[in-house]
Amino acid sequence: MESALHRFKAEFFKALGHPVRLAILDALREGEKSVGRLAEELGLEQPSVSQQLGILRQRGFVEARKEGTSVHYRAADPDVYTFLDLGRAIFERQLKTQSDLLSELQETSSPS
Amino acid sequence: MESALHRFKAEFFKALGHPVRLAILDALREGEKSVGRLAEELGLEQPSVSQQLGILRQRGFVEARKEGTSVHYRAADPDVYTFLDLGRAIFERQLKTQSDLLSELQETSSPS
DNA sequence: CCCAAACATTCATATATTGCAATATACCAT
DNA sequence: ATGGTATATTGCAATATATGAATGTTTGGG
């Protein structure tokens, strides 16, 4: 018996568990951008960006606005950046802990 | 060229993108618990819990303390709960938006 | 030393994601 | 209509992740 809530929340986190999707969200901090511009800034092919945007859109992380032939995307909820930044802080603490452990292991030249 | 930072951060989110791992973290809000107790509370097999704990440990989300034959786990950084709760708020807003969209679609009985 | 309890790891298989290339669609101008 | 530009979708092989059963390992008791 594994709560449905946890399954949904897992989907939420999974949506953020991809480097390109994180890069897209970061690029959208500066405001609305077209697919082409995102592709250019991130140095990726248009179809890749479009595909990841599709996933972010499905999950409600971004919203699209059509203008002529191009589509402009923006973050759906600015609070997601507060969230990402908090994640970053925790993430960096984890990195530090891990590198501390690493150097601790290296101090003893003869591991166990 | 896709930043290494985004790759690492994606790993961070991926670690949280699993229902059992989220359930484990939630269960540890109440404090340290043994593997067996977690398995019992969550209604899962011990190996499954142990495996997911292993992943959470690798990524630095939990820490273990050995006591006799059993191992007690706790959250490595209490701030992760602030983070999860903020995620929950955003996640719920997304759900609401999506259900709004859904009912909007259903108002028109003849979908385009 | 031998057994049992509590965890951890391994392995095989099923399932899901990714990355990429090709193709399709929408829109605008001529 | 035709062509060009901007986005979206699809198909598929490669890879990664999940699931569940079996097996290892460590610890403490007798």
TrEMBL record, chains A, B:
Parts forming coiled coils: none
Entry-linked InterPro entries: ArsR-like_HTH, HTH_ArsR_DNA-bd_dom, Metal_resp_trans_reg, WH-like_DNA-bd_sf, WH_DNA-bd_sf
Top-level division of the source organism's lineage: Bacteria
GO molecular function list: DNA binding; DNA-binding transcription factor activity
Any one Pfam family match given in the protein's UniProt record, by short name: HTH_5
Keywords from the named record: DNA-binding, Transcription, Transcription regulation
Domain HTH arsR-type: 1-95
PANTHER family xrefs: ARSENICAL RESISTANCE OPERON REPRESSOR ARSR-RELATED
Annotated protein name in UniProt: Putative HTH-type transcriptional regulator
Species in which this protein is naturally found: Calidithermus roseus
